[in-house]
Amino acid sequence: MIIRMPAATLARTVRSCPQSGFTLIEMMIAITIGLGILAGLVGVLSANSNNSRSNDRTSELMTNGRYALNSMKQELRQAGFKGYTWAEPTAITLSTLGTLSNECLESGASAGAFISNIRQGIWGANGSNPFSGSCIPSASFAAGNDVLVVRRVAAIPATSLTANTIYFQSSYAMGQIFRGTTAPVFDASQLPVASFAVQIYVYYISPFTVSSTEIPLVPALYRVSLQSDGSMSRELVASGIEHLNVQYGKLIPGLTPTTQFFNSLTGSSVTTAVTDWDSVNLVRIWLLARNETTEPGYVNNNVYVMGDSTYDYSAAPDGFRRQVFSTVVDLRN
Length: 333
Hints:
The protein is of the alpha+beta class. The protein has one domain (48-330). It has helices at 7-16, 24-77; strands at 122-125, 147-153, 166-170, 175-179, 194-206, 220-226, 232-239, 241-252, 258-262, 280-290, 303-306, 309-312, 322-330. The chain is elongated, with a radius of gyration of 34 Å. The mean pLDDT is 89.
């Protein structure tokens, strides 16, 4: 059975029900509280984002700096290695090496004199570019940085010889550099004999990583490396490396022998006579790594001391984060 409520009664019931809702003031208060909470969340997210970018920049510095330093350490530990021999290399006629493209040569040096000077495991230039007329053009060199040369032979003898590759034929009593597939003939009494590929690296700082037109310019650690065809070409080691400083340690004889470090030593990169470079037993390296881009809100006005060089950013601060990496390498050969 359906009971119908009279219309008048229904109207009185509806009117008797209380009406509820937000007043304008209550709504404005709610909106204000909501906006405050939203602003707080935005602030937290912004802070987290800034911290994340700062951590990324720090990670970038650490990765580039450590990689560059470790790469140089690995080569330095093997500097001067000449296979089976400790003897002075046999002199050769430089013309027998043929054409050597882009060889690193100081002014006045003869072609082949740099690559053939395998006896000189370590050499360096202090704050200048001695190879501006050959393998490191002035535009590719960041002025004021050091240059480091590492010479050695491969750790493992070659199983076969390749045309145009520079080798060092080594026995216990002697050694001789040559090029190509025809190795020097040693006396049968000189066995064992093996040919090792010659490896030469020239480290320096470039003011840019890819091109001189890049924006911003990102400095980088480069090296000029001897290739299998007898040429020397540039290779990127690590981007974001702004400065390189090197010192060379020599054992000073006396009642208590001590090692003294020098910014440079006498003798050129093609000197075949005995020089102070033959007495180097330690190499100290400093690298200053820099971020690729500036960091908003960060001001770098620090002073970095690296050997005989000081890099002072207090007079002209910028927004790049930087970090110094350094090590001392004990030469084994």
